[in-house]
Amino acid sequence: MDEERKCVMRQIADRGWHSPAGKIVVAGMATVAISAVGATATVSTVRTVTMNVAPLAAIDESSDTIGFADSDLYGMTPAQIDAQLDQMQAMGVNNVRVMIPWAGVEFYPGYYNWSTVDYMIDAADSRGMGVLGVINTTPFWATEPGQPPLSGAPASPDAYGEFAGTVAERYAGKVGAYEIWNEPNAYIFYSPQPDPAGYTDLLKAAYPQIKAADPDATVIGGVVGSVVTYGNLTMNPIDFVDGIYAAGGQPYFDALSFHPYQYTTEFSEGGYLPDSPINQLAAMHDLMVANGDGDKLIWASEYGEPSSVAGEANQAAYLEDMLTTWRTLGYTGPAFVWTLQDRNTASVDPEDTFGVIRSDGTWKPAAYVIQELASQSGTPPAMARMAFALPEAQQAAPADLAADSVDAAGQLVATALQPATATVAAPAPETPVAAQAKDVATHRKIDRQDRRAERSAQAPSAPKVAADTPRRSASAPKASAPKKEPAAAPKRNADKREHPGDDRRRDRHAGHRG
Fold first, then answer.
1. Would you give per-residue pLDDT tens digits along the chain (514 residues)?
2. Which of 139, 231, 275, 341 could form a disulfide with 103 if both were Cys (CB 3.0 to 4.6 A apart)?
3. CA separation for the pair 220, 74 (Å, rounded)
4. Under CATH, what is the fold of the domain 66-381?
């Protein structure tokens, strides 16, 4: 029995369906023909056992992947968390971004309260959902002197890195990706003021700790908001990312993330505005290419539109425009919608009305848009189907192995399958995710290269860095890439008028988000 079970588990593992921690989850029922209810059940012909196999923690990093960013989950009861996750999956969304607040978990040094984070992540994990965790907020004891808790920069990057490693060790196989802080280019989240070099110290401390605990986790840096530079309060995301490279941060992230909020213009229509999110996004990618990071993706780990500003119909239109446009750009990763449910639909405060579900639980038009777009992205990555062919040889099964008493598909297959003749059948045609599981990383790389080639044929080439030009680091001068206007998005005219949404985008940071 043990050898047979091992054989089945090897067959599953060979197909690539395992979590980074090696945990394999099999759900569903396997059916065999039982000639009579009695002492023996037999398999008399070649039969196929089909199982649902959940690759836990994995987030499909393609640009058509949709998730919800919902930091409010941290303040909810278990019943509320369950209800929120169920609503996400009712829309076809199988990825969630959650807050893992250092200040909430390690309120006193060395004393941890994991209860809420454990429940959130276990609840998502049990549903086969991909989890993106944002590790943010500073405990009062870990801030720089004179700085407030939560938003104050950590006095010791190493202490932050140690906490990040503890998180990754605890949730290995359950959390697929981690973001290092949230919107550090705004003082409201990183005080006393945005500091790319200081933020890079957090990357340098956290990245090796996370990778040591969970080598398969994706570590995401930047996490920048779409703002304009405004004194010491906010810093343009391009300047901030440029500062990360200048401080030697290039080896310490696997992807960057960006929050392309823009309340008054659709994402695709912002090309005529110099500081619009779509132009900032293109400039960010150009900067990555110039620093040798052209193969790294940019995730949209937050994007939303408050219905109190735009109205519910426009909220739906803006979300559809952004999510659809995002999929066409060739260098983008998953997009996470902020957020699932309104805090108060009747409020005039934009921070209360970002949800695609009203506070009474009814769906807004935007919820149906997300449901439709999620259905276009193929089989949800949370679950794929696999088939195993049973051998022709007669195999005896225990007398109590009637169909209505089988409590796990793995137990039945381990009993019925001959190790010597076990074969793995081809995935069912309606499950493209299973067919791609052998080499997901290669497929994504090929797709990105193809899309990048198409984009290069339609737009001016990104500035080149000579082969003998060293990559920027903390001790090296900046590469001599020319300063340029953002490209790749269509410009309607060349005027430099003030972005009509700039004030709103600055004010947005007054709210409490991830």
1. 444 344 433 433 333 333 333 333 333 433 334 334 444 444 444 444 444 444 456 899 999 999 999 999 999 999 999 999 999 999 999 999 999 999 999 999 999 999 999 999 999 999 999 999 999 999 999 999 999 999 999 999 999 999 999 999 999 999 999 999 999 999 999 999 999 999 999 999 999 999 999 999 999 999 999 999 999 999 999 999 999 999 999 999 999 999 999 999 999 999 999 999 999 999 999 999 999 999 999 999 999 999 999 999 999 999 999 999 999 999 999 999 999 999 999 999 999 999 999 999 999 999 999 999 999 975 444 433 333 333 333 333 333 333 333 233 333 223 322 333 222 233 334 333 333 333 433 443 454 455 445 544 544 433 333 333 333 333 333 333 333 333 343 333 333 333 333 443 434 443 445 6
2. 139
3. 21
4. TIM Barrel (3.20.20)
In whole angstroms, how far apart are CA 307 and each of 20, 226, 262, 353, 506?
39, 19, 13, 6, 18
Between CA 371 and CA 88 the distance in angstroms is 9
What residue has token string 């001959």? 418
* pTM for the model: 0.69
Q: What is the token pair recorded at 267?
A: 């994402």
